[in-house]
């Protein structure tokens, strides 16, 4: 994964795009030099399924982390990603460059650590939101991989918050009489 001189993200995705799976099926996809798993999902702007390499969903490494559920302030007008106070001791106390790794790509951002609300600069956070098609209700798991007075590196995992459309007709989950049952 790398960043071009124009600031565009370059992916080093090794999954063969010609391989298809049925909805939600996990399968094996062979790359030139390794074997990777893929998962096909329903969620994308153009209605086409997305394939995700299995390292999109991995156990936390034991490094400092936090999670958040995407709200309006994350993805509309304000475009703010503010980190919780519980993570502040593990983050730089001044503004430093940040690298955010997610789904086989990286984004270079500016981490604004010099005030009480530690956050990313608005423009680069907005690009991350749009590139990853973040929506209300999605969950983000942020892991601090490296942190110093010179730079901070994060690994992010995105868990989609949309409810499967095939279940929406069956239940509404609003009352005890109409619960959502997952087999």
From TrEMBL:
Quick check: keyword DNA-binding in the entry? yes
Localization recorded for this chain is: Nucleus
- Key words of the record: DNA-binding, Nucleus, Transcription, Transcription regulation
Q: Which InterPro entries match?
A: B3_DNA-bd, DNA-bd_pseudobarrel_sf, REM16-like
UniProt GO MF annotations? DNA binding
User: Positions of the region Disordered?
Assistant: 1-26
GO CC, alphabetical: nucleus
Protein name as it appears in the record: TF-B3 domain-containing protein
Please name the source species: Cinchona calisaya
């Amino acid at each position: 994964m790398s960043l071009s001189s124009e600031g565009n993200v370059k992916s080093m995705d090794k999954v063969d795009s010609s391989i298809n799976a049925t909805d939600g099926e996990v399968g094996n996809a062979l790359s030139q030099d390794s074997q990777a798993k893929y998962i096909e999902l329903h969620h994308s702007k153009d209605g086409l399924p997305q394939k995700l390499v299995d390292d999109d969903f991995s156990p936390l490494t034991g490094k400092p982390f936090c999670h958040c559920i995407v709200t309006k302030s994350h993805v509309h007008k304000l475009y703010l990603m503010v980190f919780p106070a519980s993570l502040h001791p593990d983050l730089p106390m001044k503004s430093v460059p940040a690298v955010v790794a997610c789904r086989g790509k990286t984004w270079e951002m500016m981490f604004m650590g010099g005030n009480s609300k530690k956050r990313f600069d608005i423009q680069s956070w907005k690009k991350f939101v749009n590139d990853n098609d973040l929506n209300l209700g999605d969950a983000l798991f942020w892991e601090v991989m490296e942190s110093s007075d010179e730079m901070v590196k994060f690994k992010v995992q995105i868990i989609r918050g949309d409810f499967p459309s095939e279940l929406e007709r069956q239940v509404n989950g609003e009352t005890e009489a109409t619960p959502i049952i997952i087999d």
